[in-house]
Design brief:
Layout: E1 12-16, H1 33-44, E2 49-51, H2 80-85, H3 91-94, H4 108-125, H5 132-140, H6 145-157, H7 168-171, H8 175-184, H9 186-212, E3 216-221, H10 230-234, E4 249-253, E5 263-268, H11 272-277, H12 281-293, E6 296-299, E7 307-312, E8 322-325, H13 329-338, E9 343-346, H14 354-363, E10 367-370, E11 393-396, H15 405-410, H16 414-423, H17 432-442, E12 447-451, H18 452-455, H19 488-497, H20 508-516
Parallel strand pairs: 1-2, 1-12, 2-3, 3-6, 6-9, 10-11, 11-12
Antiparallel strand pairs: 4-5, 4-7, 7-8
Length: 517
């Protein structure tokens, strides 16, 4: 396999912080002022990376990993204040709705009830279609924008039901049905295009601001897409669907120590052979789109590219399934060709086969280590820092799918806690979070990422997601008050001490920081 020049990550540290979790008066984080203030915080604390969760429009369960599109942005993140400044909406219109009762958590039902009404008002007053910027955005998004906007418009027409419940002619995308619905729903279609234009406009302003501060944005893309998505509706031939367009096999992972039933995600599996016939065009376009959004792309469940777990769609759990070969290097060759300058992280957690290891090594992508997985009392555990064998890794305290660091420590047995205290040379358990973070900073891992909840030392009430559950996930939010508990100067000192601060930022005043440590 002929691989191109590997794009290396700079040694540094970063924070995992979803856009949804930023403070805002509108019930969910947005791409407004608080995004810029978060970038300022990262800059002051010596961070070089901001990792976000997927930013696509969310569907049932509000999971960013189950999106209506692999290309579109989430209209929830469009900031209202900028629309007020543009005189597209008034504060009175915004204040018509109650967006939140508890600023610590997202109430998705409240947001859903009002947000699109406000955005519709902005759309009706906007003259965006007359601008060069809008025309260029539509041209750049040609591969997916029209299909996604029609999909959302038709979905609204059918009371937001999944596309499998639509009338047969439009469900099967008959040409006459496409023509009729495009004409009938033209205003709704234009509305969804407007939302994507505004998301893109606001996103790139935040990204440019972060980049000017020396901060790279790491974006997370799920390997699979949701069944109820524009991608599956439009490109059904690329997925394992039957003649009625229903999934034959679905994605997940088999039973393990964490789940006796395994995880049945329910996403339709790809027809990799059909994708290969098309030279993986859909994947090329997806990666190009992601490279436009992010400075670094983390491919979630990367192991599924090499071998994936296939569960018969009729089974309710992942207990029954089989491993199948994926496209491996064939796909990644196309990815490298279409996005030669992209920096990519391979999420290689789970069933790591020699084939997976070999491909990642050949590609040169950094893999992942999650320190929480190393706290089981086994000195040979690969997730403990002294067992890191290469610098080419991204080390996390924990990810969005794990307990918070404090929550994890609180659940340890007495024997496990004795090991942890001994390993980190600590006598008081309350000191562990700080010492664990410092240990990661001092490790050979090229990049260290901390969950914001772990920096704040929050317990599991701030956990972002419990896999295989629905109802209480993706809700945690940061409050402005919590910034005050973070010792930014101490973090910056640590970043310099362990070579994780941008060297170009160092000036004579900054050099004094090292002397103060």
């Amino acid at each position: 396999m002929n691989m191109h020049t590997i794009q290396k990550l700079n040694r540094g540290a970063g924070i995992l912080m979803p856009i949804s979790a930023l403070p805002s008066p509108y019930g969910i984080g947005t791409l407004g002022r608080e995004s810029y203030e978060f970038v300022d915080f990262l800059y002051r604390a010596g961070y070089q990376y901001w990792q976000v969760l997927p930013v696509g429009p969310t569907s049932f369960g509000d999971s960013p990993y189950q999106s209506f599109s692999a290309f579109a942005g989430n209209p929830y993140f469009i900031d209202f204040n900028y629309l007020v400044e543009e005189k597209l909406i008034s504060e009175k219109e915004i204040n018509t709705y109650l967006w939140q009762e508890d600023q610590n958590f997202v109430d998705y039902s409240k947001i859903y009830e009002g947000r699109f009404q406000v955005l519709k008002s902005a759309f009706l007053r906007s003259r965006h279609k007359e601008t060069k910027e809008y025309r260029e955005f539509c041209e750049d998004s040609e591969f997916w924008l029209d299909d996604y906007s029609l999909y959302m418009a038709v979905k609204g027409h059918f009371d937001n039901k999944e596309w499998l419940s639509w009338d047969e002619d439009i469900r099967f995308r008959k040409s006459e049905a496409i023509k009729v619905n495009s004409k009938l729903l033209w205003e709704e279609i234009d509305f969804w295009k407007f939302c994507q234009f505004k998301f893109s406009e606001q996103w790139h302003k935040v990204k440019d601001y972060a980049n000017k501060k020396g901060i790279s944005i790491i974006g997370d893309i799920p390997l699979y897409v949701a069944l109820d998505s524009a991608d599956v509706w439009v490109h059904g031939d690329l997925f394992q669907l039957d003649e009625r367009k229903k999934p034959i096999h679905v994605a997940g992972v088999p039973p393990d120590l964490f789940s006796e039933d395994g995880q049945r995600w329910g996403n339709p599996l790809y027809r990799w052979d059909e994708m290969e016939k098309q030279d993986f065009l859909w994947w090329s376009k997806r990666m190009e789109s992601s490279a436009n959004l992010y400075d670094v792309i983390r491919i979630d469940h990367f192991i599924g590219i090499v071998n994936y777990y296939s569960i018969p769609a009729e089974y309710p759990t992942a207990r029954i399934g089989s491993w199948c070969p994926g496209p491996g290097g064939k796909l990644m060759e196309v990815v490298k060709r279409s996005t030669p300058h992209a920096k990519i992280i391979a999420e290689d957690l789970g069933e790591i086969t020699p084939e997976v290891k070999n491909l990642i090594q050949e590609l040169g992508y950094p893999g992942m280590k999650v320190l929480e997985f190393g706290l089981d009392g086994n000195v040979d555990n690969d997730f403990l820092p002294h067992n890191f064998t290469t610098t080419n890794i991204v080390a996390y305290t924990g990810t969005h799918d794990n307990e918070t660091l404090v929550g994890s420590l609180n659940s340890k047995t007495e024997e496990e806690m004795e090991f942890i205290l001994s390993y980190f040379n600590v006598t008081n358990p309350e000191d562990l979070p700080d010492v664990i973070i410092r240990t990661l900073y001092s490790s050979i891992a090229e990049v260290v990422i901390l969950q914001m909840q772990d920096l704040l030392k929050l317990d599991n009430s701030a956990r972002m997601n419990v896999p295989s559950t629905v109802g209480n996930n993706w809700k945690w939010r940061l409050t402005k008050k919590q910034y005050g508990s973070i010792e930014e100067e101490k973090l910056k000192q640590m970043a310099y001490l362990y070579g994780r601060a941008p060297k170009k930022e160092m000036d004579p005043d900054d050099e004094n920081i090292l002397k103060e440590v």
